[in-house]
Design goal:
CATH class of the largest domain: Alpha Beta
Order of helices and strands: HEEHEHEHEHHHEHEHHEHEH
Number of helices: 12
CATH superfamily of the largest domain: Nitrogenase molybdenum iron protein domain
CATH topology of the largest domain: Rossmann fold
Number of domains: 2
Helix content: 40-55%
Strand order of the largest sheet: 1-5-4-2-3
Distance between the termini: 33 Å
Strand content: 5-15%
CATH architecture of the largest domain: 3-Layer(aba) Sandwich
């Protein structure tokens, strides 16, 4: 059993135990369980160290797909629809192959919060009813909240609990202990992530930041950073609208006036406005930290991706 007291978690997290199913029953989760039976949903032969035939899992976006792969191990084949190479995750148009993958899946993991509404449409059109984990809504958040849920440390942990439960429900009972063990191993792998969060939070809580997009905002909140991005600018970007000249001027004043200790820039977009602000920050001696919505190809895991960005932020803040 993982001792919760030994964790350096940024916020309370679910306990791991030898009987994960009992723990999951009381966790805050958003899982819609399909009509398929846990005893007959998997077909074929066992693979690797999994005691049963693998189930089929589809994740709409890379962060949840990466976590699902680590939690499932050899007990699932995980397909991720939107990774770092496929456009803006907000605006994806599912291909026939994407729809077929969702149709055939035992478990589908969506982000929710309006981020991947296209997946909701695909699920509604599917004749099958897979188990659905809405990862971004496991703590009760609804559309309108910041949709970049994988940047919230609490949601990451609770989504992992929900994903593990869905995998257990979709698989024969012989796989339950396997998934429990995978969950415990994954939770232990968060130690560098927890340590990086604690290190930044200890040295940076209360320090101001500005952001070209609100991608990193959930993590910034967990770190105790103070958002000084002009509210009009943030609202326009969140709504997919062009910021007004006044909002841009206000942002320029934040940077040139030394009101932000760091600029956080989503480098995955091709926004000319974001590049302009990054240039202005550099010229005003405000360090720029680049973050992305999906992990780069060089990242070996979700944790490695997140820790690299946290380390870059720590360096920018002189921690």
């Amino acid at each position: 059993m993982v001792d919760p007291a030994a964790r350096r978690s940024p916020r309370p997290a679910p306990r791991a135990g030898t009987v994960l199913a009992a723990i999951l029953a009381v966790a805050l989760i958003a899982v819609g369980l399909g009509s398929c039976s846990g005893d007959d949903s998997a077909s074929g032969s066992p693979e690797g160290d999994c005691p049963v035939a693998p189930v089929s899992v589809v994740a709409t976006i890379g962060p949840w797909g990466s976590i699902a792969e680590e939690l499932a191990g050899d007990c699932a084949h995980v397909t991720t629809i939107v990774d770092g190479s496929r456009g803006d995750p907000h605006d994806v148009e599912p291909t026939p192959a994407d729809r077929a993958a969702i149709e055939d899946a035992d478990v589908v993991i969506t982000n929710g919060l309006g981020y991947d509404a296209w997946a909701d449409d695909a699920l509604a059109a599917a004749s099958s009813k897979p188990a659905v984990v809405v990862a971004g809504e496991v703590t009760g958040q609804e559309t309108g909240a910041n949709p970049h849920a994988w940047y919230d440390p609490t949601i990451v942990r609770e989504a992992a609990v929900a994903i593990t439960q869905a995998l257990q429900e979709a698989s024969p009972t012989e796989a339950e202990e396997y998934y429990t063990s995978r969950f415990q191993t994954w939770e232990q792998s968060l130690a560098p992530y927890d340590a990086a969060i604690e290190r930044v939070r200890t040295g940076a809580a209360g320090r101001p930041y500005a952001a070209t997009e609100p991608v990193f905002d959930p993590m910034a909140a967990a770190l105790g950073l103070l958002d000084v991005t002009p509210s009009g600018f943030s609202k326009s970007v969140s709504n997919g609208a062009e910021p007004s000249p006044g909002d841009v001027a206000a942002f320029d004043a934040v940077l040139s006036g030394g009101k932000a200790a760091v600029l956080i820039d989503n480098s995955q977009t091709d926004s000319a406005m974001a590049r302009q602000l990054a240039t202005r920050a550099t010229g005003s001696s405000v360090p720029v930290v680049e973050v992305t919505e999906t992990a780069p190809a060089s990242a070996t895991s979700f944790v490695a991706w997140q820790v690299a960005q946290l380390d870059a932020l720590a360096a920018a803040l002189g921690l």
